[in-house]
Design brief:
GO molecular function: glycosyltransferase activity
Strand content: 5-15%
Keywords: Cell membrane, Glycosyltransferase, Membrane, Transferase, Transmembrane, Transmembrane helix
Shape: globular
Number of strands: 7
Main location: membrane
Organism: Actinomycetospora rhizophila
Protein name: ArnT family glycosyltransferase
Helix content: 55-70%
Largest sheet: 5 strands, mixed
Number of helices: 24
Length: about 575
């Protein structure tokens, strides 16, 4: 079996390890004892890479047809990824409060005001993506509305399409084409990933820069010339800089892996890792210079420092580690019915990535034989020998991802979206795992096929269930209120989202009936699910009190908000005086 054969074959026999050549990077990491000295270079071919020779062998063996099939399937996978997220995108997932804020900052850019949130400077997140949102807004609005925010969600589809291509591209650097396509299919169907890709969130755009950066670095380590290598390294640093100027959290899974490379000299040479980190930091520094030039250094410093302190865990105001947050385990169990394939894949991927780190560390080290006369690696040694720096680089990246998530989970501001940083890299790890497991015979291979089929089938079933059920209670609420209620009325809201999407109404926070009485609020809005989870100012006891004492005029049910209820406080059920007996303002 030739070297190139490791990248051919069907899923039924992806890469039998016992047949793989010793220089195959997957085999070399999983079985370092098989890592023999490389053959002497062929005269006249010293600048050709191992990957180039594989391409020639594949072409001679009819690889052109396989490549055409691969690209056709990849195009279909990309189109399917977009379709899976576009179908019922507005109604399948409840409006998230962060979406309203991001839409408002984008609206501010469209109006020419720069990064502002409801009229105030906003630098909690870098403005790169919000400026992009502004390009899709033809006519800025004075106030946020639910239809306006939902109308911006399709922007995320472009990032989903790009990300599935990048996932396949990253996986393809270390595994065969069919395993890489399978990694893309896992990304396309993963319920946890689909939920974030379908909303106006920062995670998918941030991951675009992250994946583009790691792919550029993987290409760089395969280059035979110093100029090409440095050019791709610069592209990688630029992409990772774009990632952190999209959302600062990206630094956890980009800068941390580079620090590992600087310390260990795995994947990249130390100077190269320092250079990539410098380019990444220079991109962010450009953003800081822009802040200085616009005279916003004060708000930037205050909000950025506060965000950094939360990220490292000194301040715990939000997230599962904060004092008032619901239990992480309870939340996991509640959402398990919808995201268990995602949880399973994340767990398996983390375990396997840890296994790779444990058994493969010696194969990633730079030995004395790899160095020149002065203790430095010779120019082009990585590419000429094909010595697995692509896998070393990928392993360092995964180590950085795992380390960052472990720290964040234990000490930092861990939130649900934090695990998006782990879910997407896990798809690449799954491709590596399947590549090794494909060597199993008989019952083992059958079990593997069954498990993969069940995971993908369950993900598809969950997708269909979520997409065919409505989870848009806020859209239904505002449609009812503007059609049936005078906007001159005061409204007490016992959750956090409605206050931003009811322009014209007088809005007040609701923590008790006395609050509503003091503000002359005629109507009250509460969410049963958010109150039960402790994510709303109205307590479950207040929700029960309103149900006993006042007339329910509207309710909408969804997975996220539970029952979103609207009560008329001027129509008591127990004979007590109405809360707002006076005329509306």
């Amino acid at each position: 079996m030739t070297t190139g054969a490791a990248r051919r074959g069907s899923f039924a026999a992806l890469v039998p390890l016992r047949e793989q050549p010793a220089r195959d990077p997957i085999t070399r990491t999983l079985h370092p004892d098989r890592d023999h000295e490389p053959p002497a270079p062929v005269p006249g071919r010293s600048r050709r890479t191992i990957r180039e020779r594989r391409r020639r062998e594949e072409s001679a063996a009819g690889g052109r047809t396989r490549r055409v099939v691969f690209w056709v399937l990849l195009a279909a996978l990309c189109a399917g990824t977009v379709a899976l997220r576009a179908w019922h995108q507005a109604s399948a997932y409840e409006l998230f409060m962060d979406e309203i804020q991001y839409a408002d900052v984008g609206n501010s850019f469209a109006a020419g005001h720069g990064p502002e949130l409801f009229g105030e400077p906003f630098f909690l997140h870098p403005p790169l993506l919000f400026a992009l949102f502004g390009l899709f807004i033809d006519q800025p609005v004075d106030h946020m509305t639910v239809p306006f925010v939902l109308g911006l969600r399709p922007i995320e589809l472009g990032f989903a399409a790009a990300n599935v291509l990048l996932v396949v591209g990253v996986a393809r650097r270390v595994v065969g084409p069919w395993a890489a396509l399978l990694a893309g299919l896992v990304y396309a169907l993963d319920p946890f990933v689909v939920r974030f890709d379908s909303r106006l969130m920062l995670e998918a755009p941030m991951m675009f820069g992250t994946l583009a950066g790691i792919l550029a670095l993987l290409v760089a380590v395969d280059q035979p010339s110093r100029r090409a290598r440095f050019a791709w390294l610069a592209v990688g640093g630029l992409a990772w800089g774009i990632a952190i100027t999209t959302k600062s959290t990206a630094a956890l899974i980009t800068a941390f892996p580079l620090l590992i490379m600087i310390v260990t000299s795995w994947g990249l040479r130390r100077k190269e890792a320092v250079g990539v980190l410098a380019i990444q930091c220079s991109v962010y520094a450009t953003y800081v210079v822009w802040v200085l030039a616009t005279g916003n250094i004060g708000p930037w410093f205050e909000q950025t420092i506060a965000g950094t302190l939360r990220a490292i865990g000194i301040l715990k105001q939000t997230g599962f580690n904060s004092g008032h947050a619901p239990s992480f385990v309870d939340r996991l169990l509640v959402q398990g019915v919808w995201f268990f394939p995602s949880y399973l894949l994340i767990g398996v991927a983390c375990t396997y990535a840890s296994y790779l780190l444990f058994i493969g560390w010696r194969s990633l080290r730079v030995t004395r034989e790899d160095r020149g006369a002065h203790g430095r690696r010779t120019r082009g040694a990585h590419a000429l020998r094909g010595d697995g720096d692509d896998l070393g680089l990928l392993t360092c990246w995964l180590a950085g991802v795992l380390g960052a998530i472990v720290y964040t989970f234990g000490l930092g501001e861990v939130e649900e979206q934090t695990f998006y940083l782990l879910a997407v890299p896990s798809t690449v790890v799954v491709a590596m795992l399947l590549t090794q497991m494909a060597s199993w015979q008989g019952a083992g291979r059958t079990a593997l096929t069954v498990v993969v089929t069940l995971v993908l089938t369950s993900s598809a079933i969950i997708w269909f269930t979520l997409r065919t059920a409505r989870d848009d209670t806020y859209l239904q609420l505002v449609e009812y209120m503007y059609a049936n209620i005078d906007v001159q009325n005061e409204v007490a809201v016992g959750e956090h989202t409605a206050q931003f999407v009811l322009p014209g109404f007088g809005i007040h926070e609701l923590t008790s009936v006395d609050d509503a009485r003091a503000t002359f609020s005629r109507y009250a809005v509460v969410s049963t699910e958010l109150s039960e989870l402790g994510l709303a100012p109205a307590s479950p006891e207040l929700v029960d009190e309103l149900a006993r004492r006042y007339t329910l005029v509207f309710t909408a049910h969804g997975r996220t908000a539970g029952d979103l209820r609207l009560y008329d406080l001027n129509q008591p059920l127990d004979g007590t005086p109405p809360v707002a007996p006076g005329p509306p303002r």
